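BUG-355 | component: ligand-complex export | severity: low

The export step for NAI jobs runs without errors, but we want the raw record kept on the ticket for reference. Input record follows.
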Amino acid sequence: MGTHILDAMAREGFEEVIALHDRASGLRAFLGIHDTLRGPAFGGIRRWGYLDERQALIDCLRLSRAMTHKCALADLPAGGGKLVVLDDPDLDLELAYTAIGRAVERLGGRFYTGPDVGTGEAELEYACAQTRYVTSPGPAGPGQLADATAEGVFQGMASGLRHLDGEEDWERRTVVIQGLGEVGARLAKRLTQRGARVFGAEIDPDRAAEVASELNIELVDPATETSLPCDVFAPCAMGGIVHDVTLERLRCRLVAGAANNVLARALHGDRLHERQILYAPDFLLNSGALIRGALFHLEGRREPVDKIGERIGRAMDTIFARAAEEDLPPARVAIREAEDRISRWRGEGRPEAVR
Ligand code: NAI
């Protein structure tokens, strides 16, 4: 398939990659386990219409490695994993997720999984019937994950504002939220409750109307979402939103949202820094769901969302302070911190400078 998988695994320090196929459902999937030195691997199930299996495999490796970074920064006794399913219109979802549940069970707790793009409550229920290592969306599970994510984003945003101005001062703040889905709407609620002025951009008109009628927010055209003057731009839709074009348009002082991989490329974080726009690294900011899920599975407790938010806020304070001391982009500092921690637990020396 043109991908030297063992070379790639050795380069990135992977432990295991499993190719899954199930005759009955047509399931084709990859399960990556990046690191279990500190504890079991955690990572959701992404179901996506990949062009081919090479693309799916690369995504699986990239995402499972990113989960190790996320666990390290969140200071969890866990590592990264990911299960990536090649979506297909003929895929029988019930049988496919049943097969996934059996595969996860066979790993005996080395890998815990849960929701991600393409995997919601219905799919998780099928997998949960086969194993306890899948996060149950029902009352037996850890509880609302999106709420934990929204609280983490809110507290991380507060940390960013304190870093910029020494105070949060919500009543004088304007926040543009891109995407009023599970996380965006919950974030909007927290902000309006503190008196912030919230603009929401949502491409689904029904969803936009529903959230706007519930909360005191103003809707804006998604075509203008990145260019509105505001204190904070909060990307809570899809990744890659800060790229060559949007970077020049942004008229905010802080970028802080839930979306994964907000920066199209690492250098866009450097360019934000040059433009004196503070960037809250997404993989720390959006780790609320991971923290909630991991503590539930590892310690059997449902961590209250305010505790999760405080934890993320404190971690963000540290990253912003170090970034300021060294005049470095916060994303670079966060990646370096994560890599330092991973190297320490692997008993290695300090890794090479962050690329
Ligand atoms: P969601 O699917 O419920 O909401 C996303 C919303 O964004 C949808 O309503 C969609 O219509 C809208 N949208 C898509 N493109 C848009 C655009 N260009 N402009 C305006 N609106 C747009 O997803 P959810 O759960 O709220 O997650 C949001 C982001 O946060 C995703 O990137 C997700 O991967 C990430 N995330 C979510 C976590 C969670 O606990 N739900 C945990 C960690 C990351």
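Assignee comment: Attached the raw record above. Residues 180 and 210 are 10 Å apart (CA to CA).
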